[in-house]
Automatic annotation (TrEMBL):
Residues 154-193 form the Zinc finger CGNR domain. It comes from Nonomuraea roseoviolacea subsp. carminata. This is RNA-binding Zn ribbon-like protein. It holds the Pfam family zf-CGNR. PANTHER family: BLL6575 PROTEIN. It comes from the Bacteria. SUPFAM superfamilies: Jann2411-like.
C-alpha cells in the first residue's frame, strides 16, 4: 500500500455523515483505487484542521502527534464496532473498552456561569489541556448514539471495493458516493462480460 496522503479527497460525505459526527470520523481514513490511502488525521496539523472544522478544537489548539495517535486509535476501535454492528457479529471487548474510556474522559454536565451583560448561562468547561478529552468523549458519545439508536440497522460498509467508508443505507443504495456506485456497477458489468453464465 502506498504512503498515506493527507490532502482531503474530492469525495462528498457518505450518507449519514452529516448527521453523525462518529460516521464522519470513522470515514476520515479513506482507501482509494490504486492502493492509495488518504488519512485526514494523518498528521497533527491535519488532525487539528479536522477537529477545528467540526467545532471540536480551536484553530490554535496545537495538536501534537500523541493526540493525533489517540484519535486514530479511537477511530480504529469504532471501525471494529461498526463492522461488528453491520455484520451482526459480537463486539470485541477491547473496542468497547476503548469507547467507554473515551466516554468517561470529559464531564458531561454543563456548568453555570454568569455574564454581567447577558446574565446566567450554562456551558461545558474545556480548558486547553482537555480539548482532546472533550473531542474523544464527544465522538464516542455520538458513536454510542448511532450504534444504539434507530439508524443502527441502516449502518453498512460501502459496497464498492476498495472503499472502506461506512454509510447509512437509504433503500437499496449501498455506496458512499456516486463515484463508488459507478465503480461497483462497472466492475459488475466487466465480470458479466468476462465470465458469462453457461447455459
Amino acid at each position: 500500500m502506498s504512503e498515506p496522503l493527507t490532502a482531503e479527497p474530492a469525495l462528498p460525505p457518505a450518507p449519514g455523515a452529516d448527521d453523525y459526527l462518529a460516521l464522519d470520523f470513522v470515514n476520515s481514513a479513506i482507501a482509494l483505487p490504486g492502493g492509495h490511502f488518504v488519512d485526514l488525521l494523518g498528521t497533527p496539523g491535519a488532525t487539528n484542521r479536522w477537529l477545528t472544522e467540526r467545532g471540536l478544537a480551536p484553530e490554535d489548539a496545537g495538536v501534537q502527534e500523541m493526540c493525533a495517535a489517540q484519535l486514530r486509535s479511537l477511530r480504529e476501535h469504532l471501525r471494529v464496532l461498526f463492522a461488528a454492528r453491520s455484520g451482526g457479529l459480537p463486539a470485541l471487548p477491547a473496542a468497547l473498552s476503548a469507547v467507554n474510556d473515551a466516554l468517561s474522559r470529559a464531564p458531561s454536565a454543563a456548568l453555570l456561569y454568569w455574564d454581567e451583560r447577558r446574565g446566567p448561562y450554562r456551558a461545558a468547561p474545556c480548558p486547553t489541556n482537555e480539548i482532546l478529552d472533550r473531542a474523544l468523549a464527544t465522538i464516542a458519545a455520538n458513536a454510542a448514539d448511532l450504534l444504539t439508536g434507530p439508524d443502527a440497522d441502516r449502518l453498512t460498509p460501502c459496497g464498492s471495493t476498495p472503499c472502506n467508508r461506512y454509510l447509512l443505507r437509504h433503500g437499496r443504495r449501498h455506496w458512499c458516493s456516486v463515484r463508488c456506485g459507478d465503480r461497483a456497477r462497472a466492475a459488475r458489468a466487466y465480470a458479466r462480460r468476462t465470465h458469462p453464465k453457461a447455459d
